[in-house]
Amino acid sequence: MTSANITAQRRPLPSGPALRLWQSGLHWKILSVAKFALIWEFAARSGFNFAFPTFTATMAALWSMIADGSRGATYLRTMKPLVIGLVISLTVGISAGVAMGLRQTVEWITLPVFIVMQAAPMAALIPLVTFVHGTGLTSKVLAVVMLSMPVIAMNRYKAVRNVPSSMVAMRASYAGVTH
């Protein structure tokens, strides 16, 4: 070996927070967010739509909402229809999915409804629900139910229907109830 190779082997690798940041790939994420913010700012300042706010104005409004506490109240007001809608969706969706998975007559009646609900563009029907029921709690809960219940019911149906036969045999060996 030459003396240059020995010196290169003994020299410690550079380290520090900047190198760790570079090696972690976090710089690419930061650059992506910065690029997104710049594109947003330039698009808003171009004047193509007067209702499109700039990135700096949006962040200033967000900071003022956080500072005066109105952001938390907004989240709490949004959580009420979300929680009510999810409770309804989970209750009805899981019950319907299990019933469809266990009984073919229930599957024959309800599966087409859930398939259509999952395939239909439900987001396009939400303005109709808002038109009929207004902007109150009912329309918000219905929107959550319309978007979440088909997915929950279909996932539960597939889970019950596709239980491996070895698990069914294990249930029987442990004196499980048959249906």
UniProtKB/TrEMBL annotation:
GO cellular component term of the entry, any: plasma membrane
GO process terms (BP): transmembrane transport
Keyword Repeat part of the UniProt annotation: no
UniProt xrefs under InterPro entries: MetI-like, MetI-like_sf
PANTHER family tied to this protein: ABC TRANSPORTER PERMEASE PROTEIN MJ0413-RELATED, ALKANE SULFONATE ABC TRANSPORTER-RELATED, MEMBRANE SUBUNIT
Keywords linked to the UniProt accession: Cell membrane, Membrane, Transmembrane, Transmembrane helix, Transport
Pfam families: BPD_transp_1
Membrane topology: Multi-pass membrane protein
Residue ranges annotated for the ABC transmembrane type-1 domain, each copy included: 75-179
Principal cellular location given in the protein's record: membrane
Family (UniProt): Belongs to the binding-protein-dependent transport system permease family.
Positions of transmembrane segments: 50-70, 82-102, 108-129, 141-157
PROSITE patterns reported for this sequence: ABC_TM1
Subcellular location: Cell membrane
Name by which UniProt lists this protein: ABC transporter permease subunit
